[in-house]
TrEMBL record:
Statement: the UniProt record of this protein carries the keyword rRNA-binding: no
Protein name from the UniProt record: Metallophosphoesterase
GO molecular function: metal ion binding; UDP-2,3-diacylglucosamine hydrolase activity
Coiled coil (UniProt feature): none
Keyword tags: Hydrolase, Membrane, Metal-binding, Transmembrane, Transmembrane helix
Keyword NADP attributed: no
Transmembrane intervals: 41-63, 75-97, 109-136, 148-167
Pfam families per record: Metallophos (PF00149)
């Protein structure tokens, strides 16, 4: 397809092509990813080592000092052990911890208890740190400060906050509206509206009725296009077929465009991608589409997830995704993880839409999640001439189903024409 001319300088076109070539010749093919089954084994071992250490800490600092009969402490210790090993139990019973096929109520109950355990861990650790400082400053014995009343308060607060957080996580996402200025966006495309959906994680937690609600709210926005940036599901095609069916009702004049996230690869992307296509989505696998409005064009590119090579698929490759795209057309990139955004900016992308982080799920925890995602966790970031938007996601993984101060979202994005950022 021949490039349209909007009076842009040949310098801009040449620099974008050059930056693509230089960047990808240096880095894109060096994404570290362990091959299966080593990848899964290492992940599970590290994950459960962390949880074992967490359990032993809570046992030592929270349970054993309780002034109750030994039998009650033993019972509480066993209960916390079971809760801390919730995901290991799921693997033993269901063969996976990512999408246990158990009743919706059971998912909520187990999620409530596990999230409460994590909050007890955090509150106990923070209390120990505070008591340590107080003991050094005022020479007050830690036992006098961290007594049974404080432990009881911690337990009650954790159970209550966990209940509130799980309830909030299970609700329909609200619509969040933002404007994004894209360099070289034609004036005729100023005001174009797209909806970003990401991290639906359709599962036994987020079932058909919830999906219908998300689709209804999305369609009510009457956007020009719907862009889905990965992690639509948790589970196999057979288990989720009825739950994902409402996605077939998503509608937009310029189409519904999606990419796979890491969870699609966990559950056989070779089967899920054709299923999404059957539901009317254009699934981008290191490729692009051109959205045409009148004489003007907008490129929407999509890349695979970093998890793809571990499952025999090609990793994210923006050079391949943009091959053949008109050099003078602005580019929106769908990339599940926000990591690598500076590289996208260097490659000439105008707007990158990502998810994966769930916004950190809990205020304060977002600091940890940010550190694991190159500093990106939620909202807008300006990187050179590119805008990165990281959505909190519509849903989240059922293994840690909590939201406290980080609401789920359906994102309506209005594109604006303007100069470089």
């Amino acid at each position: 397809m021949r490039c349209l001319r909007w009076g842009m300088s040949t310098t801009f076109q040449a620099s974008r092509l050059a930056s693509l070539r230089v960047f990808y010749s240096c880095s894109i093919h060096s994404i570290p990813c362990l091959p299966p089954p080593t990848h899964s084994m290492v992940f599970y071992i590290v994950f459960h080592i962390y949880l074992t250490v967490a359990y032993l800490y809570v046992l030592w600092r929270f349970v054993l000092p309780l002034p109750v009969a030994r039998s009650w402490r033993a019972l509480l210790a066993l209960l916390l052990l079971a809760v801390s090993k919730y995901h290991l139990i799921l693997i033993a019973v269901y063969g996976t911890m990512f999408s246990p096929e158990m009743p919706h109520v059971a998912v909520l109950l187990a999620g409530w208890l596990f999230c409460a355990f994590v909050l007890i861990l955090v509150f106990t650790l923070l209390t120990d740190l505070a008591c340590g400082v107080l003991a050094l400053w005022r020479r007050v014995a830690i036992k006098r400060v961290f007594g049974w009343r404080l432990r009881s308060a911690i337990a009650m607060a954790a159970l209550l906050l966990s209940a509130v957080g799980v309830y909030q996580a299970a609700q329909l996402p609200e619509v969040r509206r933002i404007d994004v200025t894209i360099e070289h966006l034609p004036r005729s495309l100023d005001g174009l509206r797209v909806v970003q959906l990401t991290d639906l994680h359709i599962s036994r937690l987020f079932q058909k009725e919830w999906v219908e609600g998300v689709v209804s709210r999305t369609n009510a926005l009457n956007a020009d296009a719907v862009l889905i940036s990965g992690d639509l599901i948790d589970g196999t095609v057979e288990a989720r077929k009825d739950d994902v069916a409402p996605l077939g009702k998503l509608a937009a004049p310029l189409g519904v465009i999606a990419i796979p996230g890491n969870h699609e690869y966990y559950f056989d992307a070779d089967r899920w991608i054709p299923e999404f296509q059957r539901l009317g989505m254009r699934v981008l696998v290191n490729e692009h589409v051109i959205l045409q409005k009148g004489a003007d064009q907008l490129v929407v590119a999509g890349v695979t997830d970093e998890a793809a090579p571990a499952f025999g698929h090609e990793g994210p490759n923006l050079l391949r995704a943009l091959a053949g795209a008109p050099l003078n057309a602005p580019v929106i990139l769908l990339k599940h993880r926000p990591s690598g955004a500076p590289d996208s900016a260097a490659a000439g992308v105008g707007l990158q839409l990502s998810g994966h982080t769930h916004g950190g799920m809990i205020k304060g925890l977002d600091l940890v999640v940010r550190s694991a995602n190159q500093g990106f966790v939620s909202g807008s970031y300006d990187i050179g001439n590119m805008r990165l938007y990281v959505s909190n996601g519509a849903g989240l993984w059922n293994g840690f189903p909590i939201r406290l101060g980080v609401p789920a979202e359906i994102t309506e994005i209005t594109l604006r024409s303007g100069p470089a950022l």
